[in-house]
């Protein structure tokens, strides 16, 4: 298998841990081990007694039970865990696709959502989101994209980097559309439960008609990326078996300590998600005021969910050049649209962390100096 460079991850790997101020992060505020253990009295003693041998390849029964509880109609044996959502993407595409299959992918996208399929030999067609329609992809256009060889439709909702979320009616229509044609939907839902309004919360794809698959993890909503715990939930028993056999060749099982911490997080997921949702709601109000002040320099579509936004830079300067100068001048890291293989006009902002207000103030000072 030949696979191209993962542009976003390479960009971040070379900058994220050196930049004093990261304003383009996609994940929410993290926690310390102390904070996590404090959610469950007695867990510190349990941690010290934890035995560090192999564990069940699919994930411990208690962890899968906690994950299943995030869905309406999923049993623990319909969940398989991975070392992060990235391994889940790799496993799904290597077990569900064959060379020559046709795959439709919502675009822009996290690169592995299309690049892994392409590297296998699939024919990948982007399903473009329309900024002029609030980043909504066109369901009517989707009908024209489907071919006899179409194996799957890959979506991400809530969406990174735009913050778009499908309306409920569109999501249900999409699930039925795919089911009628024997097409699987692979739904990246790592930002699910981070809807800005509770009324906007949608069902998971696995809970809609069809043998679809929902991808989740602890990295984005919960800010626990260092645990490297992700999962796929599906009613498709054949797919679950293929995923398990693939994992036998990749990581075999997860880290036992990561699963221990993940179990605590998921048993208290409501508290952690509520804390980070409060941060997101506060920060997005700051972004609204920021983009109103700088409306001559940026245009944006206000996100409905998640912790990222994708404004357009209106100035006569490319996003890549802007982000490079910003980093060199101020130490602030933003993410240009070019690393999403999209364009050189958009920039990803992240607003899920506690240090975002200070970073935004520093950016405002930079703009006052350079663009006023």
Question: What can you tell me about this protein's structure?
Answer:
With 372 residues, this protein is of the alpha/beta class. It has 2 domains: 7-32 and 270-371, Aspartate Aminotransferase, domain 1; 53-269, 3-Layer(aba) Sandwich (Aspartate Aminotransferase, domain 2). The protein is built from 13 helices and 15 strands. It has helices spanning 7-13, 33-38, 43-48, 61-68, 85-96, 112-120, 139-145, 168-180, 237-247, 256-267, 269-293, 319-330, 356-371; strands at residues 21-22, 79-82, 102-107, 123-130, 136-137, 150-156, 184-188, 213-217, 230-234, 298-299, 308-309, 312-313, 332-333, 335-336, 347-350. It has an 8-stranded mixed beta sheet with strand order 2-9-8-7-6-3-4-5, with helices on both faces. Helix 6 (112-120) links the parallel strand 3 (102-107) and strand 4 (123-130). Helix 5 packs across helix 9 (237-247).
Would you summarize the structure shown here?
The protein is an alpha/beta fold and 372 residues long.
Fold topology:
Elements: H1 7-13, E1 21-22, H2 33-38, H3 43-48, H4 61-68, E2 79-82, H5 85-96, E3 102-107, H6 112-120, E4 123-130, E5 136-137, H7 139-145, E6 150-156, H8 168-180, E7 184-188, E8 213-217, E9 230-234, H9 237-247, H10 256-267, H11 269-293, E10 298-299, E11 308-309, E12 312-313, H12 319-330, E13 332-333, E14 335-336, E15 347-350, H13 356-371
Parallel strand pairs: 1-13, 3-4, 3-6, 6-7, 7-8
Antiparallel strand pairs: 2-9, 4-5, 8-9, 10-12, 11-15, 14-15
Helix pairs in contact: 4-10, 5-6, 5-9, 11-13
Essential attributes:
globular, 15 strands, Aspartate Aminotransferase, domain 1, 2 domains, 16% strand, Aspartate Aminotransferase, domain 2, 3-stranded antiparallel sheet, 372 residues, 8-stranded mixed sheet
């Amino acid at each position: 298998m030949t696979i191209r460079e993962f542009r976003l991850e390479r960009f971040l790997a070379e900058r994220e841990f050196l930049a004093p101020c990261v304003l383009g992060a996609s994940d929410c505020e993290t926690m310390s081990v102390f904070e996590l253990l404090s959610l469950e009295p007695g867990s510190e003693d349990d941690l010290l007694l934890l035995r560090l041998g192999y564990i069940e390849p699919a994930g411990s029964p208690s962890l899968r039970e906690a994950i299943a509880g995030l869905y309406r109609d999923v049993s623990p044996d319909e969940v398989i865990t991975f070392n992060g959502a990235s391994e889940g993407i790799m496993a799904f595409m290597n077990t569900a696709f064959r060379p020559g299959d046709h795959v439709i992918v919502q675009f822009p996208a996290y690169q592995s959502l299309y690049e892994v399929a392409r590297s296998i030999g699939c024919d990948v067609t982007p399903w473009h989101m329309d900024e002029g329609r609030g980043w909504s992809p066109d369901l009517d256009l989707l009908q024209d994209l489907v071919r006899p060889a179409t194996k799957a439709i890959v979506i991400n909702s809530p969406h990174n980097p735009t913050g778009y979320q499908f309306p409920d009616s569109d999501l249900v229509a999409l699930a039925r559309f795919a089911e009628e044609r024997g097409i699987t939907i692979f739904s990246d839902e790592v930002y699910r439960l981070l809807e800005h309004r509770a009324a906007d919360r949608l069902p998971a794809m696995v809970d809609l008609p069809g043998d679809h698959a929902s991808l989740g993890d602890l990295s984005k909503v919960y800010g626990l990326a260092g645990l490297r715990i992700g999962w796929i939930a599906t009613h498709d028993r054949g797919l679950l078996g293929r995923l398990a056999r693939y994992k036998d060749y990749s990581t075999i099982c997860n880290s036992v300590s990561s699963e221990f911490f993940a179990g605590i997080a998921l048993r208290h997921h409501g508290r952690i998600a509520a804390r980070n949702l409060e941060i997101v709601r506060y920060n997005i109000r700051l972004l609204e005021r920021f983009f109103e002040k700088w409306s001559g320099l940026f245009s944006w579509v206000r996100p409905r969910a998640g912790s990222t936004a994708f404004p357009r830079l209106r100035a006569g300067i490319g996003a890549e050049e802007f982000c490079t100068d910003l980093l060199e001048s101020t130490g602030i890291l933003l993410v240009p649209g070019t690393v999403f293989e999209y364009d050189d006009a958009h920039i990803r902002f992240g607003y899920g962390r506690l240090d975002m207000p200070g970073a935004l103030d520093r950016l405002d000072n930079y703009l006052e100096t350079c663009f006023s």
